[in-house]
Amino acid sequence: MMPGAPTSQPQAPKPPASAPAKAPEASTAPVSVAALIGNSTEIPLEEGPWVLGKVVLSIQGRVVDNPAWRELVRGEKGILYTKSDILYDVDALMGTKQFAAVTPRLFAMPKERVPKDFFGLVSSNSEVLLVYRLTPQGGLPTASMGTLAGGPRKPLNVSGLILTPTAWRGTGYYTDPGLSLDINAVYLIGRLYGRNSFSDVTPHTNYLDQLGVWLLTADGKMQVAKEERYTPATSFGVQATALLRQTPQPQAGSAAGTSFSVNANPNSQFLTDYYGVVSKKIGPVRSSLGLMEGDFGDAVSQFSEFLNPQNLAFEGIPGGAEVKSNTMPFANIFFTPKPEHQLGVEAIKFNGALLDPWLIDLKAGYFLKLDFNIGYLHFNGGYDVLGLIQFRYTLYPRLGPL
Which of 15, 16, 184, 370 is positioned for an S-S bond with 217, CB 3.0–4.6 A? Predict the structure, then answer.
C-alpha cells in the first residue's frame, strides 16, 4: 500500500434479491386412509345401527373414487346403516368380479355428532367412518382403480322421477322405514312434434305448439319395508296436485274450416291419488313398480287438445264424454352417471280412459345439463312429443348440508 493512501473499509455483502413468493400448490399426494382414521377407535360390525359420517373405498391404503364402484355402495353421509346394509354393499362390489376380497371396517368419528332425529335409535351418538378395503383381482390395471376421492358427493333425490314416485325417502339419507314429504313441480312447456290420423282434423302434423300446464304436487309417503339384499323397499303414499293452465290449448282445425280450443281454466283443478310402490336397486340401476288410484289420471286430458271433450265430439264420440282414469299402473327406472343429473325413464298407463292414452317420460337432464325432459304421449289416433321441466324438493326428512 502506498503511504498516505486512504484505507478502504470492507463492505458487507448485499443480501440476494428475494424471489417473489409463490402461491401454495395444491397437493397431489394420494388421500391416505390412515390420515382419515387418525386415532379413531374401530367399531365391531356386530354393533349398530350407526349413522354414517363418511364412506370411502380404498386400495393399498389410499382412497380411490371410481364412480362405477361408488354407485354400487348405497351409503351416504347421514344415512342410518346396519350390518345387513354393509353386507349388501360388499355383495354388490364383489358382483363386479373385479375384486378378490372386499373388507368393510368401521371407525368412530367423535367430532361428528349424529343429528337429533337419530337420538335413541343408534348405538353411538357420533357418526362413523365406513371404509371398504378392496383387493383387486390379479392383473387388474391400475388405471381402473379410479382417481383420488374429491369433495363430498351431492345428495341425490331418489324419492321420485318426474310424475311417478319411488319407495325410497327423500335424498336417500334414510334407508329405514318412516315418513317422507316432497314437493314436485312439473311444467309442460308444449308440443315439440305430433301426428294424428283424425279424419275431421287438419293438418295431421303439428309441431312447436305451446301447452302451458303446471302440475304442483305434494307427495307424502310412508315407507313400511326397508330394502334388503333380496327384497325391495315398499311404500304407500298420497299425492295432492294443483293443475294450472297458463295458456289455452292449441287449436285444432277441421276440414270444414272450423276450429276449437280450450281456454285457460280460472278455477284450478285439484287432483288427488293414493299409491303403492316397490323399489329395488340392482347394481347402479334403481327401478320401481307401482299403482296409483284417484283422479290424477284426469290430468292427461290437458296434455293434448285431441284428448279434450271438444275433440271427442269432433270425432263422433257422444257429447259430454271425457278422458278420465282412476287407475294408473306405472314403472320407472333410473341411474346416475353423474351425481348432478339422473338418467331415467318412466311409463304411466291411464286405464279405462277414452282413446287409451299412455305416457312415457325421459329424464334427459344428463345430456342437456338442465332439468329439461321429454315426454311421449300416445293415444288412439296419434301421438305428441312434449317438452317439460321438472323439479323435486324434499321437505322431510332433511339434514344439514353435506
Answer: 184
